[in-house]
Amino acid sequence: MTVEDFIREFEQGMRDVGAADDWLTARRRYEALCEAFAPADPPGLNWTDDEADGVRIRRYRPPDAASGEVLYLHGGGWTLGSVRSHHGIVADLALRLGHPVTSVGYRLAPEADYGQALDDCQAVLEDCRPVALAGDSAGARLALDLARRVGWQGPLGLIYPPVGIPDADSLGPDAPLLARAEILQMWRDIADTVPALCEAHPPAPHIEALAVDHDPLTQPFEAAIEHWRANGADIRYHRAPAMVHGALHAHARLAPMGEAWQAFCAGLQERLARTPVSSD
Q1: pLDDT of residue 198
Q2: d(C-alpha 103, C-alpha 64), whole Å
Q3: Contact 232/226 with Cβ under 8 angstroms?
Q4: I want to staple 81 with a disulfide (CB 3.0 to 4.6 A). Which of 74, 136, 137, 182 is the partner?
């Protein structure tokens, strides 16, 4: 598959999502769209749907899993996305890390606000007590804010997140699958309930970061990475050439995305190997 093929197919799928008459239908169409790009489950991987403190989760366990759980927060603009839409990503992550991974089905807007979604993620974190935290896009912003809220000290994996307060001056140019105006509108929809957390310091001391070439969020993300490094954070940064926002869903079919994803996972795995696991 070429990136042009991916853009064309994903754009058509998102038009179908946008044409839905209600949120339930839109979300089911989004799940089907993302699932269409996902690879088959890796051999030996087991997963189960469950709840943690009343929040829906999906638990993944790879063969010969190491101790220490990883928490994953999915993207989808805070209105779409679920443990189903990101199943292919999280299943592959669990296999590559060799650790159990829990995917969080936090509440979505407009039925819930950003603060409630963040509360759901914190409830699962406190229940599962993970050793690493990761997320993509809107989920990466939740991971970033959650890390700041709880004083996170473990590895933090961030995949093309919106950082700071997105505005016309900070965002990069429009790109396929994600325009500046879309980001600004999504931010306006949640801004009133985003917690005012101190952004003067890095969200975590050890960060694995992944972005793509064509994404308005890459420019502010890179600026944040530079600021965090200047303030003492240990950050490895990966950037997938020629790729677009959302291409992680097709990591198994887009070679540049797959290579950057594998490097991101290897870096996170190396950080996990150096992270102590509580015996509690």
Answers
A1: 67
A2: 19
A3: no
A4: 74
